[in-house]
Amino acid sequence: MSVPQSLLVICLLILLSAFFSIAEIALAASRRLRLRQMADDGDDRAERALRVQEQPGEYFTVVQVGQNAVAILGGIVGEGAFSPALTQFFSVWFEAKPASTLGFLLSFLLITSAFILLADLLPKRLSMNEPERYVVRVLVPMRWCVVVFKPITWFYNHATEALFKLLGLPATRDERITSEDILAMTEAGTKAGVLAVREQQVIANVFELDSRTVASAMTQRDSVAYFLRDDSDAIIRARIAEEPFSTYPVCDGDIDHVIGYVDAKDLFQRALNGQPLSLSDGSLIRKVLIVPDRLTLAEVLEQFRLVHEDFAVIVNEYSLVVGVVTLNDVMSTVMGDLVGPSDEEQIIRRDENSWLIDGITPIEDVMRVLQLDDMPHDDEYETLAGFLMVMLRRVPRRTDTVTWNHYKFEVLDVDSYRIDQVMVTRQQSVAAESAAPAAAAAAKVQSTHPPSTDKK
């Protein structure tokens, strides 16, 4: 075979090897969601690609057989085409044996480089950029290759399956999409500029509904505005004017004996019609949804859906009311700072290294703002106030501090044992390095008060 003929054969082999490289990477890198979308849009080739992805054994066997066969054949043809000419070229300066060795090595280097660059790297990078576009184009020729190499693929497939069983390895790919996969995709989309940071945070908040308890979004017991069944018209009107809400629990004697709730719209309707506001007859009182405080926000949403309500009273294991929650509270948790008035912000950033945080702020929100991956004993509390109580092992008092992971939490205000405001400060690097051994293992707790049972 002459040199021009050998070059033509090598070019054809490089093209064939490049085809197999594109076929391999295109199928492996194709996203099932994108292929499903293409199939739903009427592309039958995408549907066939999905079926091949489910059972890719024969497909990849043909690819590997083709790539290895072409590479071996390319080496044989290339060595026969270039080695004699290069040997003759080097014989001008070297003896026969060194010239032959140099000719063989340079021939090997040229052929190998051509296959690596043109048959491997270039086609694989090309197919990685748009795998779905290329996989639908190579399916038909690959089907013919599967038919032609059927006996060979049968042998290698069965041999491979036997090895998988012998080694106890999974033979199929796990195609399940987890919440972690989706969150990773949204984070990548945010970094690429496809999603806004706030949009990505909303998606992350949706997945947190299964892990956050209702206590993290509820209105605390001390802040609940409610009516007693025997309240007079004047008391009801004064309460509405002082604490305007859309829904009010109705209780018998105290807040722990809830008998229902009243909608503010019904009260306004009566007021506009000149009727007295009275709850004693029960005509305005609606049946209230009672949920335990250990339910997650996702479970509360399901309860709202089942009973067609958007308001619920939350009780603890002792049947004591701990708060109330509305559908708007849950949705505000999902939307984050996209909704809600600014005067109700629970976390206020003072400067680059300090924050003023309300004690009832959910600990998940605190961790997100401070960029903390975990908190100590995080299964024992729901709020920042709970974190301080667990770390101090008592009810915090004003000026008490807790240091954790280079952050200092200082109690600024306590009202009837309720932690109102906490100052969180990021410590300087020098201080952090000096405290690193202790901070890495446990929190550092400080108090300006001796242990006592003082009441405010």
UniProtKB/TrEMBL annotation:
Give the function comment from the record.
Involved in cadaverine and putrescine tolerance in stationary phase. May facilitate the efflux of both cadaverine and putrescine from the cytoplasm, reducing potentially toxic levels under certain stress conditions.
PANTHER family according to UniProt: HEMOLYSIN-RELATED (PTHR22777), POLYAMINE EXPORT PROTEIN (PTHR22777:SF16)
Query: Domain CBS spans what residues?
Result: 218-277, 284-344
Q: Which InterPro entries match?
A: CBS_dom (IPR000644), CBS_dom_sf (IPR046342), CNNM (IPR002550), FAD-bd_PCMH-like_sf (IPR036318), FAD-bd_PCMH_sub2 (IPR016169), Ion_transp-like_CBS (IPR044751), Transptr-assoc_dom (IPR005170)
Protein family membership: Belongs to the UPF0053 family. PaeA subfamily.
What SUPFAM superfamilies would the database entry show? CBS-domain pair, FAD-binding/transporter-associated domain-like
First-listed, main subcellular location of the protein, grouped into a coarse class:
membrane
CDD domains membership: CBS_pair_CorC_HlyC_assoc
* Membrane topology field: Multi-pass membrane protein
Transferase recorded as keyword: no
Instruction: Cite the entry's keywords alphabetically.
Output: CBS domain, Cell inner membrane, Cell membrane, Membrane, Repeat, Transmembrane, Transmembrane helix, Transport
Q: Where in the cell is it found?
A: Cell inner membrane
**A Pfam family matched in the record:** CorC_HlyC
Q: Which Gene3D superfamilies match?
A: 3.30.465.10, CBS-domain
Q: What is this protein called?
A: Polyamine export protein
Report the residue ranges that make up the CNNM transmembrane domain in this protein.
Answer: 1-199
Membrane spanning stretches: 102-122, 134-156
